[in-house]
Amino acid sequence: MNALAKLKTLTPSVNQIVRTYALKSDLKIKWVRPEKIPCYKPEKSGDLQSLPTYAGTELMKDYRDSKELESANEHVRNLFTIQHNRRREMVENFKEDMVRRVYRHELDYGSIEAQLGLMTARIRSLQDYMEKFPRQSVVKVQLKELIDKRKRFLRYLRRWDYRRFEYMLEKLDLVYKPYPTHFHWITRKDSLRKLTNIHCDQIKETRLEEYRRQLESQQLDFLENKLKTLEFIRKEQTECQVPVTVSSDEIKAVRKQYEELKQKRAAVAESLKEPEDS
């Protein structure tokens, strides 16, 4: 019974122990985890444009120069348009358009420019497909491999022919996003540490700025007191016939600095009054 009585008397004192330092509520910092964007999305791959929407009345790639279709019936002609055929035909048209932007000659399909055009068209068609069917894991893997392959080609061009690299980015509407030099996981602890350092730097800057303004406001009075003190010291030393430690040049320099600062403050005050009067 005595032991229970002792415990009852100790419990209120234990409950009164409260942590009053380094509370999270004291830090006015809020960290929100950034949204995870898959690597096959255009925001990560660097594609500034998506797959274009065709009207559907365009002929397929293999029947564009057909003379028979020029004089054929409208219903027969519609059978060879994009809207009445597979999606692959539309992608083939888009591939040819992308290659025509960067090819070296009409039969060029093997240069690095043509390969980049073909890969870009294929990537954008797969991205459009993934938006409709996001659970297609096989297509997702193919898309990731294509994006990495195109990034390797662009890295090669950037290293050995920078002018052509810039030309390809402009023609294909791409943004090159290199691999990070140092990979690190995004954690709450590291992010809060960075935000805390930024917050402390801002506090430091604001306080230093306030202290600088306070010193500037006291500068004119300080120079006036300094000038009077130097003149008094020189006068007393000459009257007492002791070695003079304050030269006249020093007094002139302080007086000049005082007059310049006084004129500057007067000019600033006048410039502030003009907008008020107007």
From TrEMBL:
Residues 244-271 form a coiled coil. The keyword Mitochondrion applies. InterPro entries: Ribosomal_uS15, Ribosomal_uS15_bac-type, uS15_NS1_RNA-bd_sf, uS15_ribosomal. CDD domains: S15_NS1_EPRS_RNA-bind. It holds the Pfam family Ribosomal_S15. One of its GO terms (cellular component) is mitochondrial small ribosomal subunit. GO terms for biological process: mitochondrial translation. The keyword Metal-binding does not apply. It is found in: Mitochondrion. GO terms for molecular function: RNA binding; structural constituent of ribosome. PANTHER family: 28S RIBOSOMAL PROTEIN S15, MITOCHONDRIAL, SMALL RIBOSOMAL SUBUNIT PROTEIN US15M. Belongs to the universal ribosomal protein uS15 family. This is Small ribosomal subunit protein uS15m.
